[in-house]
Specification:
Layout: H1 26-40, E1 47-49, E2 59-62, E3 79-99, E4 102-120, E5 126-132, H2 133-146, E6 161-163
Antiparallel strand pairs: 1-2, 2-3, 3-4, 4-5, 4-6
């Protein structure tokens, strides 16, 4: 399978607002398979959002299970989430983020530490779950893509953007 081409900053298509997923049929599932393949075969791919590959639908994939991080407190493994919504949140955390669409930089971003998410799974069934720490941050990061936002839009201050030295796997 060939990977999707990932859009990179400053591509204007990254600013587009995504539309809700309404059809969870074969075309959608084929898209998700290729999106997952793209994430798994990209450096440090713990999450990806459909808009990053120029599909402007509300779908994200998150899998923080194989990533070592001091804030990796909750782990649901591989999650394919469509039309995700944060329905409750608490606490805050400032954490260094990177992005497949911003490969040359990282930045310190303030996020909610704990979130309750409601979304549809790969078949369109509603699911609700709580998560905290690193996994919660990854979900919030990917959800920003659905709104046309990058972590660069949320850095704590301009001095909190850093040139990436090495893109670690």
């Amino acid at each position: 399978m060939e990977k999707f081409k990932i859009l990179t900053y400053p591509d204007e298509r990254l600013k587009k607002i995504s539309q809700p997923v309404e059809d969870f049929g074969r075309e959608f599932k084929d898209f998700v398979d290729k999106l997952l393949y793209t994430m798994k075969n990209s450096p440090a791919g713990v999450g990806i959002a459909a808009p990053q590959v120029d599909w402007h639908i509300q779908t994200i994939i998150v899998d923080a299970s194989g990533y070592k991080h001091k804030y990796n407190k909750t782990n649901h493994g591989l999650m394919i989430l469509s039309n995700p919504r944060i329905i409750a949140s608490d606490g805050e955390i400032i954490i260094r983020e990177g992005c497949l669409s911003v490969p040359d930089f990282t930045g310190n971003v303030k996020r909610h530490y704990w979130i309750k998410v409601e979304a549809e799974d790969i078949n369109g069934n509603t699911i609700t779950f709580d998560t905290e720490g690193f996994e919660a941050v990854v979900i919030q990061h990917e959800m920003d893509h659905l709104k046309g936002k990058l972590f660069l839009d949320r850095v704590v201050s301009p001095k909190d953007i850093f040139k990436r030295k090495v893109y670690k796997k």
